[in-house]
Write a structure and sequence with these properties.
This protein has 370 residues and is an alpha+beta fold. It folds into 4 domains: 67 residues, no CATH class; 101 residues, Tetrahydropterin Synthase, Chain A; 60 residues, no CATH class; 49 residues. The chain has 11 helices and 8 strands. The protein has a 3-stranded antiparallel sheet. A 3-stranded antiparallel sheet has the order 6-7-8. Strands 1-4 form a two-stranded antiparallel sheet. One of its GO terms (cellular component) is plasma membrane. It comes from Galendromus occidentalis (western predatory mite). Belongs to the band 7/mec-2 family.
């Protein structure tokens, strides 16, 4: 420690005013250098904590590798030249650091052996099945639901540098998202709104995997498995609904048929010739069937006249029978009166036997015709 400095008396007021007018900043060595922290990957650029150059070690290794390649050129050519397909991209790292320029491909690219490494990324759409998830719906029904997810890599560099295994991470996220989305739905909504549920899952997964360089293109609900007892109850309910609908349809059909028959009867009653045409149509249909027995329907006018004449004759016969019976009764009464007068005129004490009355059978045998 430097002890050469001695305490000095405090300055006077004049000195204080002179010193306060001039402010001297502290020397730069008085503060330690600011620490740099890495808060994330700076893909495609330089690390803020790195120096302007890659370092002497990197330069030396690069020059040495180039010399080795030049010395063994015919043999090292196969190690330097790499090819990626149209649907692939190569992310190159040089001494562990991401090489500037982004992913390479498709086609031919060069690497320096021993100091360059690369990873291939497939840009084609990949599909995977989400394992069946036991989910408790909003109305407390346990269902097993599985789905299928389609995704692709939209940024190969981010997919390699920001996540260790983008495929496995996407599968786990799809399973948890499926449980979270279906847990807020009723059973009826899960069964009837599969398309809307798929859209909600697709948007949620796409937003979550955007920072991984993954693009979720499509999500589909494959199967919804219900408990056996619930399936039986739903089947019974559906069958009862179908039977009720069939009965309603049959009743409506009978009602329309009755109305049609009523209208046809009214038309036939107003137009007698329509009934004759109907007779002819019936005869034509019977003749077309080649039956051995042909039934000719009798016109209603003839039947009506026959029924009327028969009814009139029955009424006349009934009236005649009543008239004859009345005359017979009068004749019998007159004869009884004459016999009584004769007996009285002779003065016989024994009364003459009256004329026997008609038996009840004769009265009961008279037919009653309404």
């Amino acid at each position: 420690m430097d002890t050469s400095h001695t305490a000095s008396p405090p300055p006077s007021g004049k000195d204080i005013s002179q010193h306060s007018s001039t402010v001297h900043p502290p020397p730069p060595a008085a503060f330690p250098p600011a620490a740099h922290f890495r808060t994330g990957y700076n893909v495609g650029g330089k690390d803020p904590g790195a120096s302007n150059s890659t370092g002497y070690c990197t330069k030396i290794l690069t020059v040495f590798s180039i010399l080795v390649i030049g010395a063994t050129f015919p043999f090292s050519l196969c190690l330097c030249i790499k090819i990626v397909q149209e649907y692939e991209r190569a992310v190159i790292f040089r001494l562990g650091r991401l090489l500037q320029g982004g992913a390479k491909g498709p086609g031919l690219f060069f690497i320096i052996p021993c100091i360059d490494t690369y990873s291939k990324v497939d840009l084609r759409t990949v599909s995977f099945d989400v394992p069946p998830q036991e989910i408790l719906s909003k109305d407390s029904v346990t269902v097993a639901v599985d789905a299928v997810v389609y995704y692709r890599i939209s940024n190969a560099t981010i997919a390699i540098t920001n996540v260790e295994d983008y495929g496995h991470s996407t599968r786990l996220l799809a399973a948890t998202t499926l449980r979270n989305v279906l847990g807020t739905k009723n059973l009826s909504e899960i069964l009837s709104e599969r398309e809307s549920i798929s859209h909600v899952m697709q948007s949620s997964l796409d937003e979550a995997t955007d920072s991984w360089g993954v693009k979720v293109e499509r999500v589909e609900i494959k199967d919804v498995r219900l408990p056996v007892q619930l399936q039986r109850a739903m089947a019974a309910e559906a069958e009862a609904t179908r039977e009720a609908r069939a009965k309603v349809i049959a009743a409506e059909g009978e009602q329309r048929a009755s109305r049609s028959l009523k209208e046809a009867a009214e038309v036939i009653a107003e137009t007698p010739s329509a009934l004759q045409l109907r007779y002819l149509q019936t005869l034509t249909s019977i003749a077309a069937e080649k039956n051995s027995t042909i039934v000719f329907p009798l016109p209603m006018e003839i039947m009506r006249s026959i029924i009327y004449s028969q009814h009139h004759n029955n009424n006349n016969s009934y009236n005649n029978q009543q008239h004859n019976m009345t005359n017979t009764m009068h004749e019998k009464n007159n004869r009884n009166m004459r016999h009584t007068e004769k007996d009285l005129s002779r003065g016989d004490d024994e009364p003459t036997e009256p004329f026997p009355p008609l038996p009840d059978e004769e009265i009961l045998d008279v037919p009653l015709i309404s």
